[in-house]
Structure formats: C-alpha cells, structure tokens
Design goal:
Elements: E1 7-11, H1 16-27, E2 31-38, H2 45-56, E3 61-66, H3 89-92, H4 104-119, E4 123-125, H5 141-153, H6 156-159, E5 165-167, H7 175-184, H8 209-221
Parallel strand pairs: 1-2, 1-4, 2-3, 4-5
C-alpha cells in the first residue's frame, strides 16, 4: 500500500456503518489508518470483524487501542444490564437507549484526533448516522460540528492553521442507502458484525436494536443479508 496518498484516520468498529465509511474514504483516494477500540464491550466479534475489514481493504495501518470503559459501566454494552430485544422501531427512537455508552464517541474521536495529529493527517472519518436511529446524542450533526471546533482549537496543528476535517459520509443516509453505497464500493458485508449480543459462534441474535435495523436496511435495499442469525 502506497503511503504517498493523503492520510485519513477511520474509526472502525467492524460494524455495517463504520465498514461502509472506510470503503467511502478509500474510494476518495485516502491512505487508510484504521482505529478500533477494545473498550470493555460484551464480546470481541466486532473487533474480529474490524480485523477482517482492515485486511479486505488493505489499509496502511490498523491499530486496536484498549480503553476500558467497562470500569465505569453505565451501558448495556459495558455492564451487566439486559440488552433490549424485540422492540418496535418507534420505541428505539423514543429516547436514548441503555446501549448508549457514556461519551464513547467523544473519547474515540479524541484518540483518533491524537493519532491524526501525530500522523500529520487532517481527515478523520466516523460512521455516525442520524436518520434510521437517532437515539445516540453523539451521532448527531451538532455534536460533530462542536467536536470539529474543539479539535481545531485544542491542537497544535489546528492553532497553526492546519485544520482537521471530521467526515461523516453516512450521517444523512438511511440503512438501505448505506448498504447500497457499500455494495457499490465493493464491500463484502459478510465480513461485518453488527449484533449487540451474538452467540459464541458469532451468529447474530436477530432481535436487538442493531440487528433489527440492519435487517430492515437489507430488506428495504432488496438484498439478502449475508450474516447468519439465530432467529
């Protein structure tokens, strides 16, 4: 992989949205520096998926960074709370769910910013989406705009006029549009992992919010989801 390309740091969870975002960044001619977090989440399936995606797209570097948010808890993804399952779409969007991890994207973007400054990269990509499911406060346009302002005020590079861009190519797309975008860019969605509560063998539960939104997206796109489901 050539390192002469402009550099971009991509937050890569291994899920549908972040993998599509990586595909978008690569299609735009960036050299990809992927950053994945082991943050005390309930399972490693998504980390394994991130490794597969990074290899598939032949990124320049892939870092797996450990920051244990389970020491704080406060989320069904990092604590012993029950994962909500079988909810209607209206329920999902009615309030901030228990799967929200306190300040997760603030923390992840801050670490991505630190790496980007070291790399002398000016572009950071994150796969946030505010349409199909806007329950998370750190996935919304006003948060991203505020973080960009902070990034350019609180870094040496920003103060020297070498400002950072926070790219959110999926923020105004629904899941079907995201999936079609990824397919057009050659993304193999069988490599991704979306489920909050997969089986030990990696089968998606099919009932958590993430699974239901993924299945809805594939159905609306008129495509078959290549991952295996328990239900």
């Amino acid at each position: 992989m050539s390192t002469s390309l402009p550099k971009a740091v991509i937050l890569l969870s291994g899920g549908l949205d972040s993998s599509t975002t990586l595909a978008v960044a690569k299609s735009q001619g960036f050299g990809i520096y992927a950053l994945t977090f082991r943050y005390g989440q309930r399972h490693d399936q998504e980390i394994e998926a991130a490794v597969r995606i990074a290899r598939y797209f032949e990124v320049v570097q892939h870092r797996i960074f450990e920051v244990d948010l389970s020491s704080f808890g406060g989320s069904a993804l990092t604590d012993q709370m029950e994962i909500p399952k079988g909810r209607e779409l209206e329920q999902m969007a009615s309030h901030i769910p228990v799967t929200y991890v306190p300040a997760r994207n603030t923390i992840f973007l801050s670490l991505a910013l630190a790496w980007a400054e070291v790399l002398e990269a000016r572009d950071i990509f994150i796969g946030v989406n505010a349409l199909d499911y806007s329950g998370y406060p750190d996935c919304r346009p006003d948060f991203i705009a505020a973080f960009k302002t902070m990034a350019n005020l609180g870094t040496k590079a920003g103060r020297e006029g070498k400002g950072f861009k926070i790219h959110t190519p999926l923020i105004e797309l629904n899941k079907a549009q995201i999936i079609k975008k990824g397919m057009s860019l050659g993304l193999d969605y069988s490599l991704t992992s979306t489920c909050y509560d997969p089986s030990p063998r990696g089968e998606a539960c099919g009932q958590c919010d993430a699974c239901q939104l993924r299945r809805k997206g594939f159905a609306e796109a008129g495509l078959e989801d290549p991952v295996k489901y328990q239900v």
